[in-house]
UniProtKB/TrEMBL annotation, chain A:
Record bears the keyword Oxidoreductase: yes
Keyword Flavoprotein: yes
Domain annotation Acyl-CoA dehydrogenase/oxidase C-terminal: ranges: 165-269
Gene3D superfamilies: Acyl-CoA dehydrogenase/oxidase, N-terminal domain (1.10.540.10), Butyryl-CoA Dehydrogenase, subunit A, domain 3 (1.20.140.10)
The Acyl-CoA dehydrogenase/oxidase N-terminal domain, residue ranges: 7-80
Source organism per UniProt: Sphingopyxis panaciterrulae
GO molecular function ontology, one term from the record: acyl-CoA dehydrogenase activity
Protein name per its UniProtKB record: Alkylation response protein AidB-like acyl-CoA dehydrogenase
Co-factor(s): FAD
Family classification: Belongs to the acyl-CoA dehydrogenase family.
InterPro entries: AcylCo_DH-like_C, AcylCo_DH/oxidase_C, AcylCoA_DH/ox_N, AcylCoA_DH/ox_N_sf, AcylCoA_DH/oxidase_NM_dom_sf
Keyword set, alphabetical order: FAD, Flavoprotein, Oxidoreductase
Automatic annotation (TrEMBL), chain B:
GO-annotated cellular components: plasma membrane
Keywords: FAD, Flavoprotein, Oxidoreductase
Matches recorded under SUPFAM superfamilies: Acyl-CoA dehydrogenase C-terminal domain-like, Acyl-CoA dehydrogenase NM domain-like
Cofactor(s) needed: FAD
UniProt family annotation: Belongs to the acyl-CoA dehydrogenase family.
Any matching Pfam family: Acyl-CoA_dh_N
Signal peptide: none
Domain Acyl-CoA dehydrogenase/oxidase C-terminal: 230-377
Domain Acyl-CoA dehydrogenase/oxidase N-terminal: 8-120
The organism of origin for this protein: Sphingopyxis panaciterrulae
Protein name (Swiss-Prot/TrEMBL): Alkylation response protein AidB-like acyl-CoA dehydrogenase
PANTHER family reported for this sequence: ACYL-COA DEHYDROGENASE, ACYL-COA DEHYDROGENASE FADE29
Length: 295, 383
């Protein structure tokens, strides 16, 4: 039993964070450069658990939590899952079911989309889709396609869990980003002749953000290991990780805005990026109550 | 990262399980500390004789010298077997002993540690005073040096198990005119010494588990100072890190049983049909799982680096508040039956009422949030 990253995993984690800081800063999330996707593919993040790289879920989850911290494109989630379970080697858009059709995120340049439909994971050909526009999460573009969809189901029970755990990792990244942004601001913004982080009302909001991150991240690690081990409780543990991660991302997203005061609710400042990302992820493979209460 | 246990650890787990299955007493632990003292001592002695006391304590002092992972495995199996609460041995086993292992002289360790492990010596913690609770540095109890003794005067409060204890972790002011963190010492106080008066205090749950302690010219040999005269603050902080850290692993394991019992109870009495109840139970089941994951992560950190991670205070805070949510749910599921509660009952209502301690004792939830904000996030110190 060891729930701390091993040396190899730490290298993956640090390398990911370093690359993101230099090439994909959170601050630039609203307009990613056109060539970004090719760079992400070149870094190997679209197929870490797929044949060829064959890494485990734990390593991939650690890396995706870092990617999530920088609000990396959500199509990485669907593409990584497709690579593992369908052998796809191209960009695959992220789909959420909507009125018999689907919402497609990050669809540019993708011919296929993947998502959870009626509790089962499936993928389908996109065909003619209307042009994309920004979604609530400005880092992700959105287009709607009408049904009926011809969905090819992916039967392996771990496939849906794979999408759920990667979305959880992303949400933890977003929660981390909000926590760090809030703590950094609380250290420098002064009112009443002292940093606002001196006031317990602010300090304790920040502490709660740290608690939510630690709780969700720990469960993420456990769930990823359970998935790797083929543990009988894996479905529960992944659902638990997703539930806690979504809450951390949403609650931290809101707290971060409050801690920034007026500037926190402007378009120009960055706190809303984390909250909006949390709202998108909340709808990706949500943790069902039945999964959390299953025997 | 992996969640599997080694063959050795798995064998160890089976041995724990087998022994516990055969030896966990059928009778319940009495409720009050005074009534339970014989029970607690006898049970601790049985654990010691069978080799289950001090699993990761050094062998020189009666421990087994095994790993902290094995200690966790033992505590997991202990809780699963519904073995008795550690009771009056809490202080000695969970933080008195560990503080001595880290800070005490050879003579002090050789005398006290085996007695703690055998259940022969009950310890209590004399930190808090009427004027020094969250602000522990406000301690006023004084020890005047006279020859090779300290002459102690003052009082402590909220001292759990004081009325049944043989020894005390006593933190007091040993330097005249010293202020705050300076001039304090951590000493081993003989609770049977002349000049000590213990006045038990009853809790709102009915038990008398803690007490006020008065010191009237109590003589304590200077040889009982642990970690050096004037170093009391540093030693006390190590005590608190044990109290807030691994001392609570057993509680965390218990929570995983409590949530299953609550889910079963809600299904049985139909309250699971209430969406809010179902959702809270689902939520808490996820949280209980996360607490185990956090504990494993922290233990892994200890194994890797030799020290608990900075997140120990996070575990402590989250677990204490989760415990209270579980207790509130248990009370909710009982409905109006809670009104039948009377002092002496040992049920969900008693647990709920006693459970308020979780966010007060050993550093309140507010103080824990300060610590997390300041040490983990680098925010400026408020105090
Ligand atoms: C069941 C139980 C068992 C105990 N056993 C022991 C024992 O064995 N030995 C021992 O030495 N002590 C023991 N204690 C005492 C315990 O450590 C203290 O109760 C605790 O440190 C709080 O101190 P206080 O009760 O004086 O409350 P106070 O410090 O007066 O706190 C009152 C309220 O004010 C808040 N507060 C205080 N300071 C701040 C601040 N800076 N910022 C924000 N909020 C603040 C607190 O969080 C709390 O809500 C026990 C307590 C309980 C309840």
């Amino acid at each position: 039993m060891d729930l701390t990253p091993n040396d190899e995993q730490t290298v993956f984690q640090t390398a990911t964070a370093d690359w993101c800081r230099d090439n994909m800063p959170l601050e630039a999330a609203r307009a990613r450069p056109a060539g970004l996707w090719q760079q992400l593919e070149a870094m190997g993040w679209t197929g870490m658990t797929a044949p060829g790289m064959d890494l485990d879920h734990a390593t991939e989850a650690l890396v995706f939590a870092e990617l999530g911290r920088f609000l990396a494109p959500v199509a990485l989630l669907s593409s990584a899952v497709a690579a593992r379970w369908t052998g796809a080697t191209v960009k695959v858009a992220l789909a959420l079911p909507a009125d018999g059709g689907a919402r497609l995120f990050d669809g540019e340049g993708a011919t296929h989309a993947l998502g959870l439909f009626g509790g089962a994971l499936g993928h389908f050909e996109i065909g003619e889709a209307p042009p994309s526009a920004p979604s609530l999460d400005q880092s992700a573009t959105l287009t709607r396609i009408a049904g009926p969809l011809t969905i090819v189901a992916i039967d392996h029970p771990h496939a849906a869990l794979h999408l759920q755990i990667l979305a959880a990792a992303y949400a933890i990244g977003a929660a981390d980003a909000a926590r760090d942004m809030a703590a950094a601001y609380a250290q420098v913004r002064e009112q009443f002749e002292r940093p606002i982080g001196w006031f317990q009302a602010i300090k304790h909001l920040c502490a709660d953000m740290a608690v939510r991150c630690a709780v969700a991240r720990s469960q993420l690690y456990y769930a990823a290991c359970a998935l790797d081990a083929g543990d009988a409780g894996a479905a529960f543990h992944v659902a638990a990780a997703k539930r806690l991660a979504d809450q951390a991302a949403l609650d931290n997203g809101r707290a971060n805005i409050q801690i920034h005061g007026g500037i926190g609710m402007t378009d120009e400042a960055y706190p809303h990026f984390c909250l909006k990302r949390a709202h998108l992820l909340q709808h990706v493979a949500p943790a069902e109550r039945t999964a959390l209460l299953a025997a | 990262m992996d969640i599997g246990f080694s063959l050795e650890e798995t064998r160890f787990r089976e041995a724990c399980r087998d022994w516990l299955h055969a030896h966990v007493p059928a009778e319940k632990r009495p409720l009050n500390a005074a009534d339970a003292i014989d029970f607690d001592k006898a049970w601790q002695r049985r654990l010691f004789d069978a080799g289950w006391a001090g699993i990761n304590w050094p062998t020189d002092y009666g421990g087994r010298g095994l790993s902290i992972v094995q200690q966790v495995v033992w505590l997991e199996e202990y809780a699963k077997a519904h073995a008795p609460w550690i009771g009056a041995n809490f202080v000695g086993i969970n933080h008195g002993g560990p503080t001595l292992i880290l800070n005490a002289s050879e003579a002090q360790k050789a005398y006290h540690l085996p007695r703690i492990l055998k259940g022969e010596a009950i310890w209590c913690q004399g930190f808090s005073e009427p004027g020094a609770g969250s602000d522990l540095a406000g301690i006023k109890t004084r020890g005047r040096i006279e020859g090779d003794e300290l002459i102690v005067n003052g009082s402590k409060i909220w001292t759990s198990f004081a009325h049944v204890a043989d020894w005390q972790e006593l933190v007091l002011r040993t330097e005249d005119g010293s202020r705050r963190h300076a001039g304090l010492s951590w000493v081993i106080c003989d609770m049977h010494a002349p000049g000590i008066t213990v006045r038990p205090i009853r809790k709102m749950s009915g038990q008398t588990e803690f007490a006020e302690v008065f010191y009237d010219d109590v003589r304590i040999p200077l040889a009982n100072v642990v970690g050096g005269l004037g170093n009391g603050w540093k030693v006390a902080m190590s005590t608190l890190s044990f109290e807030r850290g691994t001392g609570f692993i057993a509680d965390q394991v218990k929570q995983s049983q409590e949530i299953e019992e609550l889910i079963a109870a809600a299904r049985a009495n139909g309250m699971m049909k209430d969406d809010r109840v179902a959702d809270q139970l689902a939520q808490m089941r996820a949280e209980v799982a996360a607490v185990r994951a956090m504990t494993y992560r922290n233990i892994s950190h200890v194994v890797r680096t030799g020290q608990p991670g900075a997140e120990a205070s996070v575990i402590r805070l989250f677990t204490s508040e989760l415990g209270q949510r579980l207790e509130r749910m248990a009370v909710l599921l009982k409905g109006a039956d809670i009104l039948d509660f009377r002092y002496g009952d040992d049920d969900a209502v008693a647990d709920y009422l006693r459970g308020f301690a979780a966010t007060i004792a050993g550093g309140s939830a507010q103080i824990q949030r300060d610590i997390i904000g300041e040490r983990l996030l680098g925010l400026p110190k408020s105090r």
